[in-house]
Design goal:
The protein is α/β, with parallel strands linked by helices. The protein has 20 helices and 20 strands. The chain has helices at residues 43-50, 84-88, 94-107, 111-123, 126-139, 154-168, 184-196, 208-214, 233-267, 277-290, 351-358, 393-400, 414-420, 425-428, 437-449, 467-478, 491-497, 517-542, 562-591, 596-627; strands at 3-14, 17-28, 32-37, 58-63, 69-72, 172-176, 200-204, 217-222, 225-229, 313-322, 325-334, 340-345, 366-371, 377-380, 403-405, 411-413, 455-459, 483-487, 500-504, 510-514. The strands form 5 sheets. It has a 6-stranded mixed beta sheet with strand order 5-6-7-3-8-9, sandwiched between helices. It has a 6-stranded mixed beta sheet with strand order 14-17-18-12-19-20, with helices on both faces. Strands 2-1-4 form a 3-stranded antiparallel beta sheet, with helices on one face. Helix 3 (94-107) crosses helix 5 (126-139), helix 4 runs parallel beside helix 20 and helix 5 runs antiparallel to helix 6. The protein is globular, with a radius of gyration of 30 Å.
Length: 628
């Protein structure tokens, strides 16, 4: 395999904290690699070092000379005064610069420039590339090109950054949490896009379905070193468990052997000078090995919510609209104890608005909301809370409460509670500015759980949390006795935790569906297929065709029906006509005799023809496979 990247003996500290030490690995052409590590171990820093945006203390990063590299950071660095259009085309690639000039001329109705650019677009086969670019922008819901970057939300900036790197089409993609701020539809599109892409990929993601379907290798970094797994997420879990078990067995063996060696060291001090020095040296190595922990330190959640009464939350005909557009329309529901509901839908469908309405942070336009007297909300917001950078971690918790009641008979001090959430003594007295994105999220989560809520509302809780912490949070939520409402684009998380779906399907319609996300998605696909089948049958009944010729009862190979063969013949005629029209338009555009209006009309028609040709060619290929 052709080597694209070689990392050798890389080390990095953040202040006094060691992030990683002496790590080495390589990535070959076409590999799609996921990087896994706990929060605070420097995943984002490592990606930045590899991309040349940060420097290591020791070690080297070597890329193959003739490849291009692009990085998507958690917070993409974009030019604030650029428009979206200027930012996504901000690259030196000649074809992209050509398309940028063409799109700019179209926008400003610059017919003189268009007359010069169209032959160049033909020469560089830029029309197909333009179609791909528009697909990327469309799928990521980027349709307002003139907005300034500084006016965008954090999620919009992340999508612009993602579009920019995909449009640049580098040979080597480095992506840091690419699914953050994407809805499920966008995530599934990106999953399919990267799965089919020829680009080599190094990625950090917490989305386990995404990881499983895109990546073919997993690299894990922990306090004991770097470990590589050739396979998907399920294979990684299996082999990681085996590795930890083998390591624990080796430590137990070292401890047993240490007892014998300690006895020898005590009993025969005079004889040491006569014994082989290597045995003495090995004793100290053995002592170091035996001192390692066999139990992996991880977050353990055992916080009991306050008692929840019979009446919880009741909504009756609740509606909310903005500028005449409904995000919630006549919604009614009575919550019962123990329900775990996932909220899914496209960005902007009203999911966060719904959460703000039921917590009374936003009033509905109509309808009634009744909240039970015993309800204690724990609201984990997508935006989180703003910690002061110069504030100490322990002071944040102490300012809320000096003592925390876990609701299970246990009471902890602020320091003990932080340790419970894996903040070491040193981290507790560190400034917030020293925390990673995932550590800040963990700190925010503990502030939400401090009040022992019995109705948890989680808006995108998986963003920036490491996979190990997510597994613990999932187990805690599965056993949570109160009510749970969770908005998440993480399908694995939703499938594992919820037993009901509120699907925001647009125009204020909320569909109540029993089951997890995958069950809901499968049902939707079945309904879509059934509708397409019904439409096809209805069309068949209204436009009769002669019966397909009989091939005989024993024929095993599927043949085209009479209707399909007619369709295939018509497709060939249509494609031929479209290609002829395309040639005629290209000749006219190159003639220099067209008026500005004609030039504009015909250049737009070129784009329409290419789109229709793609559709017809795809259908023709489908039919030709049946007939082959």
């Amino acid at each position: 395999m052709l080597s694209y990247l070689q990392v050798d003996h890389l080390s990095k500290r953040f202040g006094e904290q060691l992030l990683f030490e002496n790590i080495s690995f390589g990535i070959g052409k076409g590999q799609k690699v996921a990087l896994i590590a706990k929060n605070g171990m420097g995943k984002s820093t490592l990606l930045r070092i590899i991309a040349g945006k940060d420097t290591p203390e020791t070690g080297t990063v070597i890329f193959r000379n003739d490849i291009t590299v692009g990085i998507l950071e958690q917070e993409p660095l974009l030019e604030a005064e650029n428009t979206i259009f200027e930012e996504v085309f901000h690259t030196e690639t000649p074809v992209l610069q050509l398309i940028k000039a063409y799109e700019n001329a179209i926008t400003h109705n610059d017919t003189v420039t268009l007359e010069k650019l169209i032959p160049e677009m033909d020469l560089h086969s830029a029309w197909d590339y333009e179609t791909v670019i528009k697909q990327i922008l469309s799928k990521l819901k980027i349709d307002t090109y003139e907005k300034k970057i500084r006016t965008l939300s954090g999620g919009q900036k992340k999508r612009v950054g993602l579009a920019k790197i995909l449009i640049g089409n580098p040979d080597f993609l480095i992506l840091d949490e690419p699914t953050n701020h994407l809805d499920i539809e966008m995530t599934e599109w990106l999953e399919e896009y990267l799965g089919k892409s020829n680009s080599t990929l190094l990625m950090v993601t917490h989305d386990r379905y995404f990881l499983d379907r895109v990546c073919n290798q997993i690299i894990e970094i922990d306090e004991y070193g770097l470990f590589s797994y050739e396979g998907n997420y399920a294979y990684y879990l299996e082999k990681r468990a085996e590795r930890i078990e083998n390591r624990n067995l080796a430590i137990d063996k070292a401890r047993n052997l240490l007892r014998t060696e300690q006895e020898w060291m005590r009993r025969m001090p005079q004889a040491r000078s006569h014994k082989a020095q290597y045995r003495i040296d090995n004793f100290y190595k053995l002592k170091e090995a035996a001192a390692q922990n066999t139990v992996e330190k991880k977050l353990e959640l055992d916080i009991q919510g306050k008692r929840l009464g019979k009446k919880i939350l009741e909504l009756e005909n609740v509606s909310k609209s903005f500028d005449g557009r409904y995000v919630l329309k006549n919604f009614s529901y009575k919550f019962v104890r123990g329900e775990k509901i996932g909220i899914v839908g496209k960005n902007g469908a009203g999911k966060s608005t719904f959460l703000n309405i039921i917590t009374r942070n936003l009033e509905p336009d109509s309808g009634t909301i009744s909240i039970g007297e015993t309800v204690v909300y724990g609201y984990y917001k997508q935006a989180g809370i703003s910690f002061r950078e110069d504030e100490r971690v322990i002071d944040i918790v102490k300012n809320i409460s000096e003592r925390i009641d876990l609701g299970n008979g246990k009471v902890m001090s602020a320091s003990q509670f932080l340790e419970y959430f894996l903040f070491t003594d040193k981290q507790q007295y560190s400034l917030v500015s020293k925390l990673s994105g995932g550590e800040r999220r963990r700190l925010y989560l503990l502030t939400v759980l401090m009040s022992n809520p019995n109705f948890l509302i989680l808006d995108e809780p998986t963003n920036d949390l490491d996979i190990i912490t997510l597994n613990v949070l999932e187990d805690y939520l599965k056993n949570f006795k109160g009510c749970l409402l969770v908005v998440s684009h993480d399908r694995f998380f939703t499938d594992k935790v919820v037993d009901r779906i509120f699907a925001f399907e647009g125009e204020g319609i909320v569909r109540d569906f029993p089951g997890n996300y995958t069950i809901y998605k499968n049902k939707k696909e079945e309904e879509k297929e059934a509708k397409e089948k019904t439409d096809k049958e209805n069309k068949k009944n209204t436009v009769p065709f002669p019966a397909a010729p009989t091939e005989g009862k024993t024929a095993k190979k599927k043949k085209l029906s009479f209707k399909e063969r007619q369709e295939m013949e018509q497709l060939e005629k249509d494609m031929n006509a479209l290609n002829q029209e395309k040639t005629q338009i290209e000749n006219a555009l190159n003639s220099g005799t067209l008026s500005p209006e004609e030039l504009m009309t015909k250049s737009n028609r070129i784009g329409e023809i290419l789109t229709v040709l793609d559709e017809k060619e795809m259908r023709w290929l489908e039919l030709s496979e049946i007939d082959s």
